[in-house]
């Protein structure tokens, strides 16, 4: 026999959800009796809200029956264990039947006659009004998903003949989505596989069909309720019940140190720190990327395979041939690391552009909630993409990284593999490390998830130490991300002063590397491009800007160039000897702007770049130029030119 505890009908909200003392006692006793007889209990009465929760009673002193308690005593609910009666009369094999039915559909909203919702299987679905009104495709949303989902349909929308009505369910979806308001997928916070930061600033691992919190508690995705929209995906391996120990993680680090030919003593620690931080996907507010390069046979690919084994399903497969569009679409709404082997520089312009596109994607993956990319769709509507996480790429010769990219990457170089007695012994040693990483995968994942509670405080301490060493904010954040991952991987205790001192040498090495990479600023790079640009002069003669400037500044003639000063002026470049400076005209359509037309400084962007040169100025008013009228210019001192130091007028 199935017991139904019916709620009162009619009256105002408080009256509908309130019961007398006698009614409360009667209902509780009926529920207890049903549990003791191992029969399923369904709570009618309060209607389910749009997000699937049972609504709470309103009114002063109103008593409710919700999915958690009756009169303060626990009942089985979504994510809760069935209530065990004091008599322990419920058979274990029947506990799955003791559940309170809640909405298996999460309405999200509507837009342009289409209704969006999370289905019983966890998918984000959008259906047109005409399909829902006719019930077309509605039965497929529930069939075979779970007994609870079909029981909900049977209970709420029964036809009276042992079946349920897809049309009625479709009408309910329309009504619920309308009540939820407008839904814009391009701006919604939709989350799929990966590790995310929730509204309580905690890490939560989305494993496709379940979510796992730092305590290791796993709950089905359909039971998750929060500000963010969790959509289902093909399941990945979840964190293990037992985390890896500090001893096991330290053993892995030691194997890494002896297994590869690291250029610096700290490089294995940096690699270990990147991998452990990568376990946390999009949870860190700043994610650092890794670029490993080295000669052929240095073990680059084997090292990446080890990282893939350790990160497991969270990272997925190593990619050998990728494009920005492919990564953007395959990792949409995900917060997980990406591994790309053979990220080689290529003379082919198409491949170079392809790498630039992926680097731009990595930039967006680094910070905060990840950069959102919007593209036009086939139906003239916009399609939004978002990805978070850390990237790891390898190549023999690393490609040149722009300053904005270099500040997000940690660079490691591999030398030859350590000398051993035979190639077979080398291969066996590397395979042993790989096996160790594979065995640790889900337990290392569990460890980093549980340690994530101290990520923010540890990162803040290390970043502050980096700033004390003279690092800028970006350098400090990148180094702190790597070293925070290392600390959480190796220790259980909160970061202490002595331990902060111990990582000092690693931190200093990272900052020296970052400072050397930052020497060539955006301004110096733009000026170097200008000086090396070749100008097409009369009679097919070509000379660089630097050659012509040197000739004018030093009064040295150039063969076949009668008037170098006029040649420069025709291209918007002037020599101001009285100021010991050169002047470059401003504007998007000036001759000087055309010199930058096929570069990242096109459309007048050269102005802001050249102003980053030390000593460069933009006078507030026009400057009188030789052989020209008064013009708006940038003024760059001779001392910034590599050939003019000895010709400055005192």
Q: Which features does this protein show?
A:
four-stranded parallel β-sheet, single chain, Rossmann fold, four-stranded antiparallel β-sheet, 4 domains
Note the quaternary state here.
single chain
CATH architecture of the largest domain: 3-Layer(aba) Sandwich
Tally of discrete structural domains:
4
CATH C-level name of the largest domain: Alpha Beta
What is the strand arrangement across the widest sheet? 9-10-11-12
Shape: globular
Indicate the structural class. alpha/beta
Query: What percentage of the residues does DSSP assign to strands (E)?
Result: 15-25%
Strand count, sense and barrel status of the largest sheet are: 4 strands, antiparallel
Helical content (DSSP H or I, runs of 4+): 25-40%
Query: Number of helix segments?
Result: 21
What is the number of beta strands? 27
CATH topology of the largest domain: Rossmann fold
What does this structure look like?
- The chain is α/β, with parallel strands linked by helices.
- It folds into 4 domains: about 5-95, no CATH class; about 105-180, no CATH class; about 245-420 and about 430-450, Rossmann fold; about 520-645, no CATH class.
- The chain is built from 21 helices and 27 strands.
- A hairpin with a 4-residue loop joins strand 23 and strand 24 (about 580-585).
In short:
The chain is of the alpha/beta class and 650 residues long.
Spell out the blueprint of helices and strands:
Blueprint: E1 3-5, H1 13-17, H2 21-36, E2 41-43, E3 69-70, E4 73-74, E5 106-111, E6 114-118, E7 124-128, H3 129-134, H4 147-156, H5 166-180, E8 190-191, E9 194-197, E10 203-206, E11 210-212, E12 218-220, E13 229-230, H6 246-259, H7 267-278, E14 289-294, H8 300-311, H9 324-330, E15 334-335, E16 338-340, H10 349-366, E17 372-376, E18 382-388, E19 391-395, H11 403-406, E20 409-414, H12 423-451, H13 455-468, H14 473-490, H15 497-502, H16 504-517, H17 522-532, E21 534-536, E22 542-544, H18 545-554, H19 564-569, E23 573-576, E24 581-585, H20 591-595, H21 606-610, E25 623-624, E26 630-631, E27 633-637
Parallel strand pairs: 1-2, 8-13, 14-19, 14-20, 15-18, 16-19
Antiparallel strand pairs: 3-4, 5-6, 6-7, 9-10, 10-11, 11-12, 17-18, 21-22, 23-24, 24-27, 25-26
Helix pairs in contact: 6-12, 7-14, 8-12, 9-10, 13-14, 14-16
